[in-house]
Design brief:
Shape: elongated
CATH topology of the largest domain: Immunoglobulin-like
Largest sheet: 6 strands, mixed
Number of domains: 3
CATH class of the largest domain: Mainly Beta
Distance between the termini: 119 Å
Number of helices: 2
Radius of gyration: 31 Å
Number of strands: 34
CATH architecture of the largest domain: Sandwich
CATH superfamily of the largest domain: Carboxypeptidase-like, regulatory domain
Helix content: under 10%
Low-confidence stretches: 227-233, 235-239, 270-285
Strand content: 35-45%
Length: 411
């Protein structure tokens, strides 16, 4: 009797690579697989019987490919003939990646394995820092309660063509959020062009301006970190390349604030009452490009309509946001309504009084609202109180602010 024994060679194990970012110099990134000595050298023999490595017929059995965080291939190392080649390898990407990972491809067994991602940090980086706040009492450089907004998401978008517009294909580099003081920062950035976009939370609108109909037209700031002094990064007091600041009071500059007259961020030149601060000198206004204003969207206007002291139901009441001629940019003052929003506008509400003659509108954005009553809707003709323009200007400010409107009298 004879026994046949078949012996099969087991393929060498393809271990998960432990990728490490080593450093950057002149745009060249150096990576390392820290567990490279654990690999079997059989994986890195040259294989002329397999497809060539470019013009070199002696491609390695295992290729190492570098990808960015969008799964785009950045570099291929196809000629490693020893596992030690993975201990240090470098490439120069056309565009700096936010994160990179590598994939090992054993061409003999046609199997792949991927590493975790690492974040390349530039040797000479830049910081973008800013604030989401509204200096409601216009005291210039003191953050009072309710003036800073925490938990706001800020997106940092690569402005590839430096046109200040988020174009198709321009990727979000990273995101962050404001802290309890309304401050945010993006650190260890490559010198390039970015756009910061604010994402409004559910209880507020983060913005720079509203158009005449009350539509948000600006929630972005364009940041040219690759530009020269004046538009790009300048050395702050700590010797760091920085665009903007998270802490205007420490630099003697004003906090951002809202102008209810213009319906936009109150522009200033970076000069506090004691004189121009560093932001004025380096060309970065405290309202731009890194700072954002916010308005709470949790206000309420309520009141009642009566006839001779009796409640009138079914009366149409129109609540319309408007701009004012008040001198102080924030908080708003119930002065002259210089520009009432026109249709269509998200800030015009029509409501009818209930059986008790009451009306209430909630979820209003901070500001001044003109209240108009239409007595014709119940067969009457005149607004007796208030007299004059037969309307009332109500002020809504702060989180969950309430404006109680005096009773309208119609007949």
């Amino acid at each position: 009797m004879s026994v046949t024994v078949n012996v099969y060679d087991e393929p060498p194990p393809l271990l998960a690579p432990n990728l490490v970012f080593v450093g950057e110099a002149g745009g060249t990134l150096t990576l390392s697989v820290s567990n490279s000595t654990s690999y079997d050298n059989e994986l890195f023999v040259l294989m002329p019987t397999l497809p060539a490595c470019g013009a070199d017929p002696n491609g390695s059995r295992t290729w190492v490919e570098v990808f960015d965080n969008n799964d785009v291939s950045l570099a291929v190392f196809c000629d490693f003939d020893d596992r030690s080649d993975m201990a240090s390898f470098a490439f120069t990407p056309a565009d700096p990646p936010a994160q990179v990972y590598i994939e090992l491809w054993d061409r003999v067994e046609n199997r792949t394995i991927r590493s975790g991602s690492v974040t390349p940090i530039p040797t000479v980086g830049s910081t973008i820092a800013g604030l989401v706040a509204n200096d409601r009492d216009a005291d210039l450089n003191t953050l009072d309660p309710g003036e800073a907004l925490s938990g706001v998401t800020l997106e940092l978008i690569v402005d590839t063509n430096a046109d200040g517009v988020i174009d198709p294909g321009e990727v979000t580099w990273t995101t962050t959020s404001t802290n309890g003081s309304g401050a945010y920062s993006f650190n260890n950035l490559w010198l390039r062009n970015y756009i910061v976009r604010a994402v409004s939370p559910s209880n507020a609108t983060v913005l720079r301006s509203l158009d005449a109909s009350g539509t948000v037209v600006d929630q972005t700031g364009t940041l040219l970190t690759a530009a020269g002094a004046g538009a790009g990064p300048t050395l702050n007091q700590s010797g760091t390349n920085q665009v903007g600041t998270t802490d205007p009071p420490s630099q003697g500059d004003e906090l951002p604030r809202w102008s209810y007259t213009s319906g936009a961020a109150a522009s200033d030149g970076g000069g506090a009452p004691s004189g121009p601060g560093p932001n004025s000198m380096n060309g970065a206004l405290t309202t731009a490009p890194t700072h954002f204003m916010f308005l709470y969207g949790t206000g309420t206007v309520s009141g009642a309509v009566k006839n001779g002291g009796a409640a009138v139901s079914g009366v149409t009441v129109t609540v319309t946001r408007c701009r004012t001629a008040g001198a102080a940019p924030s908080p708003p003052t119930a002065g002259v309504c210089t520009l009432k929003h026109g249709n269509p506008s998200p800030h015009i509400t029509n409501i009818v009084t209930d059986a008790s003659g009451n009306y209430s509108v909630t979820g209003l954005l901070e500001g001044v609202y003109q209240i108009d009553v239409s007595p014709q809707t119940v067969g009457l003709s005149t607004v007796a109180v208030p007299g004059g323009p037969s309307s009332y200007l109500a002020v809504v400010t702060g989180d969950a602010g309430i404006a109680n409107v005096p009773d309208f009298s119609i007949n």
